[in-house]
């Protein structure tokens, strides 16, 4: 789960990391009020869960409160990479001397958290990572020991932070580490961490991504989810614990297991079709969950055929069949369906579906072929 | 011969009284797996499956009483890390974790702890192990695979069943099938399993089922190119996945341009691996 | 540093461990007021830093508030194993069904914390440890991982705590673990942890010992030190970072290093003398510290000779000599002294002491011999 | 030959600019130890001892630049655990920690971490190592020992000097002297050092200096009885200590009746060790 800049920075502040004074708002008039409160120049920043806001014109400087209102009004009418700007953050402007990058993420190959830092922070950090990887200092943290004081110091020394800033840089690094640990983040990033003209270190921009699997134990973080950014179908899917991603094609897919779901989509493409979605009902789904999945797929108006591919393991095919039947009495749909059941309780499942109007298939190849034919024939 | 599990496996089921734990214990017992004990804290002293399998409060005590030498974990995700620590501390050398949705920071702690011990963890978020005709540990439907000479290793769950089923339809059997799971931090890698298959006399050929994300397939390709003598056939899922979209498995994120299906297919082909266009093509490539 | 029962229990309560209602006091009238507040039967418990209070008659039941006052007055006049009772804890009395022992300490051989528990808690736990060690369940905790939930559960299962108490027992075990960690304890012990007639788990008595080396980072704990329990000399020694223990003999010792100090005392005994104290000035002691040590030794009226044995390593003999001279101008003492300096800057030290009235020795054997002779001759 | 340190030792001093660190660096350099670098965070770029030894901010960088293969730690107790982690993570195979007063919970973490690594820690709260005529790492006064054939191992600091001095007075030299330190949790035990002495061709006889508390001497006695071929002479300090009184070293607590001087002396005597009544008796027992 991605957090907005203003949410990430609020978390940082809880861990003692200095952030600019400022506040988030959904309307331009309040943006003016915030700017007046702050006094002086402000930065008005669109809050959308997508990178490259600055380059897309989503971050603007305002010299006066009036200008802040004007700029905020413009931004609140914008769409950035398909996402409508619903909120802006109004922050006091900083006089930047140096831009530092500081981030923590999980290194799956090393199986440890890794802290990355660079004196060349700012918007081009990914470019620097590609072209001059030596400018990025990396240190792995032992997950059992946690961040050691010396490691934070080593980062300061290795990216040549002036000595007078070490103490405060080390405190910020520790703060970021604890923020990462105590929110179950998969990414906690300050970019840029700036040294200002009046010799302060401030986290000017921040980004956090939280491990969805850990939200159960982070209720305060889970409540930060911005459902405005999701489609209705995505919200519905999450409510039922389904992994659902809407795509551009016409063949709706309901599969158990991410790997099999991807292989099913691959097969549809191989046969000349286009999948309408990725949908993984997960392991051990019951009838309710299957029914919800079914409704979500059919809520996409592009869908002209549905391919259900279930290979029972922890999921039982009879449960899936019951879910389909439950949903069919609910959603009276004329969309044709191809069903393929195999594995645990497959026969029971097939028996249950015997009287429903469905096309069945023995293999995945055959199922995809039939689904593609349905779309082409319709 | 086979790898990891066989008729000498004495299995403990952690979370045996839960819905999934009980159902799959029954399936494993029916398959012929020697399930010697179960653990559910607070239910020690109970018996399950018509009094055939004793339930203990503590893994340590269960091991002492029953000599279990492998464990399979069905406990909910929030208790999974603790269950793995418990099994490892009880001295169980093979832990198979079926549970999905384990927080990644938990798994980093688990993995770094286990690296200090002589313990093999398979999973989490995996379907487990199947040595057809001998032993099933986990949730792979037993009837879809027959005994044979093909080693199967996979990051996926149900996609593995698909492949085992296709193999059986083609009259091909498996030596052992290993589901390593799709999570970004797990216990056993492709590389680990390929080494075991290379050393296993029964295994003559190997099927590897990968997916987008991470670099495990690339490392496997490296091993196949330099040290593997047995032929390998592979399939990589996610060729149609749009870049940057998350496909359910945390591992299935395309990380900074690396880990795409195309790159993995390319690395495997360079290592001399036949790569199938879809799972049902695999048997044909093995016969080839 | 040992903590009193009332201090230990206050810490336990901070970690969610249930303790009896009650309060500590230094006077009998207040004990009565506390008893009135609590209502019903109370236990009046002397607070002295020594084991076996109960068997020494230092713990008494009172049925009424009047009785509480009487009993408190008696206890506050008592001396237990040489320690005057200055405070009593007045706790509500519990109806005890079961007594459990639960303790955490450092196992130096395993290099890990160890949690010990027994269903046979109470005053005879040490006897049980000797005679029926199988009745005590032990589990080591990985210091990098910390206490795992399953370990607390295993303890509950292995000492046969009835199931309905598991949840609360596990919470108490975790609380005790965190109390141990966050106070840098070397011992954190609840004995007995009782199950009451109304089905509550309560820590009836508690004991904590804190690692002196960690007090620098535990200021709140350090402030709990009960200086009333120490002699003036011990307080003075601690202030100067000196390890000092007063003993029964006549020869005061000032040595650097605990091992050498013990060997020096052993040598005095071997020569037929008796050491008046153990005093280790530690590594790298400066002149000030040495002077303080000197004053402390001479404050003991039993001392009839002083043996100074310094083998310079991190401690420099010239510094030690300067300290002795400083103290000698300060404390005009007629007690004879034998000085032996060797190692780092020994010659400079000897030169500095040349003009002072002191007996010198080459070897430890000789030094001890001369000191014993001084006492015997005096 | 010798153990642990010799003329190939390239020493790093952590906490080199502190009062004790600087003084003893000078002493070590004068003795002939090859001190290649120092570390004091915030003082990187400075030089000490008339510009002979560079100071770095980071141990990792110091090792990269100077190839240090051993480290000695003089930092204050509150920073000591971090300094040990830093040295271990920088890949230094031998860490000698002089600092006293390190919290015991810190040391438990350190020791459990180091057990996973190929790192030897000597100390803390120890005088360090001396291979006379070759290399001094720590604070043992160099002039009190001469080159010879006797391996010396001790839990004490200054008592060790006493013994080395007594040996020298008797014309006896040391192969290597190892101060393992008196703390309850430390890096190297008597047993570890006895094994090294047993394997070291230069060492012909061994002196062991123990004290009350713990069971390290008992374990040493066990090794001596069963596997040691070289003669051992021992002294145990604390015979006059009143039971239950704390004698400064955390280790010097008599734990539940175990760890008394009498028990240790007894165990050593049963293992065939000659036990001295006082330190100055040791040379005579060696000559015997």
Write structural notes for this entry.
With 378 residues, chain A is α+β, with helices and mostly antiparallel strands. Chain A has 3 domains: 21-92, 2-Layer Sandwich (Dna Ligase, domain 1); 96-222, 2-Layer Sandwich (D-amino Acid Aminotransferase, Chain A, domain 1); 231-377, Rossmann fold, CATH 3.40.50. Chain A contains 13 helices and 19 strands. In chain A, strands 1, 8, 9, 10, 11, 12 and 13 form a 7-stranded antiparallel beta sheet that branches. In chain A, strand 17 (305-312), helix 11 and strand 18 form a beta-alpha-beta unit. Chain A is elongated. Chain A starts with a strand and ends with a helix. Chain B folds into 2 domains: 10-122, Rossmann fold, CATH 3.40.50.720; 140-287, Rossmann fold, CATH 3.40.50.261. Chain B has 288 residues and is an alpha/beta fold. In chain B, a hairpin with a 3-residue loop joins strand 8 (128-131) and strand 9 (135-138). Chain B starts with 10 loop residues before the first strand and ends with a helix. In chain B, the strands form 2 sheets. Chain B has a 7-stranded mixed beta sheet, sandwiched between helices. In chain B, strands 9-8-11-10-12-13-14 form a 7-stranded mixed beta sheet, with helices on both faces. Chains A and B meet through helix 9 and strand 17 of A and helix 1, helix 4 and helix 5 of B.
